[in-house]
Design brief:
By secondary structure, this protein is mainly α. It is 72% helix and 0% strand. α3 crosses α4. It is elongated, with a radius of gyration of 25 Å.
């Protein structure tokens, strides 16, 4: 195969990407999210995390039962937290009628992120025992 033929094949293979990029540029602005959404979504996340932090503080600082005791089992709280998260994600996936429930990446690639998240949440609850 000559160099010219190989080059023309590469250009032909690249052409659909160029056409797709041009279509995206020509896409009507009505399909793009409005600017107010770009500002409102981060504010919603911050508001939710604030409420979440206040509930964590309340959970760890209020005594329960007779005699009054504080919650001591941090890993049980983390487990309940993760179970609620999985249930919420399942409801969202079902509501959006996703075609597949399969993760985009292999499960083992989530292991480091998941482990660090569980450990940071456990440390956060442990720290609240002493701060509250």
């Amino acid at each position: 195969m000559t160099a010219l033929a190989e080059l023309s094949q590469r250009v032909a293979a690249y052409q659909p990407d160029v056409e797709r990029a041009q279509q995206a540029e020509d896409e009507p602005k009505s399909r793009r999210p409005p600017t107010w959404q770009l500002a409102l979504h981060p504010l919603g996340v911050v508001a939710f995390l604030t409420v979440y932090a206040m509930q964590q503080e309340r959970l760890m600082s209020l005594p329960y039962g007779e005699p009054a005791e504080f919650f001591r089992d941090t890993m049980a709280l983390v487990l309940v937290n993760r179970c609620v998260t999985v249930a919420t994600a399942a409801v969202c996936i079902a509501y959006r009628r996703e075609a597949s429930w399969r993760p985009a990446a292999p499960l083992w690639k989530y292991a480091a992120v998941s482990l660090s998240n569980v450990m940071s949440t456990a440390c956060q609850f442990e720290a609240l025992k002493y701060v509250s």
